[in-house]
Amino acid sequence: MNNHPNHANHANRANHPHRLHDRHKAVLPDWLALYYETPIEITHGEGRHVWDADGNRYLDFFGGILTTMTAHALPEVTKAVSEQAGRIIHSSTLYLNRPMIELAERIAALSGIPDARVFFTTSGTEANDTALLLATAYRRTQQILAMRNSYHGRSFSTVSVTGNRTWATTTLSPLRTLYAHGAVRTRGPFAHLSDADFTAACVADLEDLLGQTGDVAALIAEPVQGVGGFTAPPDGLYAAFREVLSRHGILWISDEVQTGWGRTGEHFWGWQAHAASGPPDMLTFAKGIGNGMSIGGVVARADVMNCLTAHSISTFGGSPVTMAAGLANLAYLLEHDLQGNARRVGGLLIERLRAIGAGHALVREVRGRGLMIGIELADPRTGAAAPDAAAAVMEAARARGLLIGKGGGHSTSVLRIAPPMSLTVAEAEEGAALLEQALRTVQ
């Protein structure tokens, strides 16, 4: 070990956050986005807080993109990961895997899908990619229905069903995608209608769309759009869509990567707000179930999941370590009723934010449910999106010790709030106060 002072000083300079940013730019892709004008390195966390390399403490209202679902450094998850890693870290799906089977059993039972089968992946992108593979194989067509303003991942197939130009990184596609109305309630040609008339108009549009095309494999839809800015249709819209889809034999894939596990408070899965026509044929999940570990997956009816005729495996999907984390995390969530906490604390938070928004001309809308809340900023004179204002509010919030996200459709002008689901009332009040201060800095 070299303890020479010059060596230590060189190491400190190399590891300084500003220097780390230079190293990031030198070796990683230009398109790998970073938050903030001066990006931060998060070094550790506990509960609902994280610390950066300069020792600054932040209240985390974004949870690593809705991924730290329960809490940072949750002892139950840390212990499960450590104990499993001490036994065996990897074996692949070519061998029986007890933690994978146990987690699959629990997720299948919770899914609401009858005779469910579960396939584990390493991300939400891969989960949606798998669902699209299953749907096109089952239906023998490459046509897919997706929603405008949607986001489903960064792979070649999932980008091709993403209805958000900010994230549509190529116009080439392995799929033919048709985009339907309905996911954005307060913008677009039907925004002025009542909920019932809005739903009827979207169903009529869907019928017209299907009348002009051939066989379609599936509709893929987020019950609450994540990257799109936490937009959602009226409850029941996808149930009405399902009636139309069923007549055509078209599958429904519910993308629950951000809405799953009770985050919306009212429901365990987002699709349950649209349950009148039954559960989806498939749902995809990821993010929160691993509390930071790489877990994604697909739940599907047995006949859909088993439709593949070629062999398939996953090298890293269902890893014993990630499965142990998922089991511990899910158990904690259920035992501590974090869905109920999301409903109660999220309800208080959204009302507080609506009160704040009512006093700020830039706030066009505060929307969401549970601990999944969006604040849309717009020019009060024209109604145009205000991405520069959103970026400025994020910077001001960070300066005050609050981390939030952003998203939105035509322009990135929606502040995204999705803290760990164990958020306390006091922390919700603190975060709202900090956000109010940040908003006041932007006119």
Summarize the structure.
This protein is an alpha/beta fold. Helices cover 39% and strands 16% of the residues.
**What is the number of strand segments?**
15
Main sheet: strands, sense, barrel: 7 strands, mixed
N to C succession of SSEs: HHEEEHHHEHEHEHEHEEEHHHEEHEEEH
Name the overall outline: globular
Residue share in helix: 25-40%
- Average pLDDT reading: 94
Secondary-structure-based class equals alpha/beta
Q: Strand order across the biggest sheet?
A: 4-10-9-8-7-5-6
Low-confidence stretches: 1-11
Radius of gyration: 22 Å
Which SSEs are present, and which pair or pack?
Elements: H1 5-15, H2 17-27, E1 42-46, E2 49-52, E3 57-60, H3 63-66, H4 75-87, H5 98-111, E4 116-121, H6 124-139, E5 143-147, H7 156-159, E6 176-180, H8 195-211, E7 218-221, H9 237-248, E8 251-255, E9 282-285, E10 296-301, H10 302-305, H11 320-335, H12 338-358, E11 363-369, E12 372-377, H13 387-399, E13 402-403, E14 405-407, E15 414-417, H14 425-440
Parallel strand pairs: 3-13, 5-6, 5-7, 7-8, 8-9
Antiparallel strand pairs: 1-2, 2-3, 4-10, 9-10, 11-12, 12-15, 14-15
Helix pairs in contact: 4-11, 5-11, 8-9, 12-14, 13-14
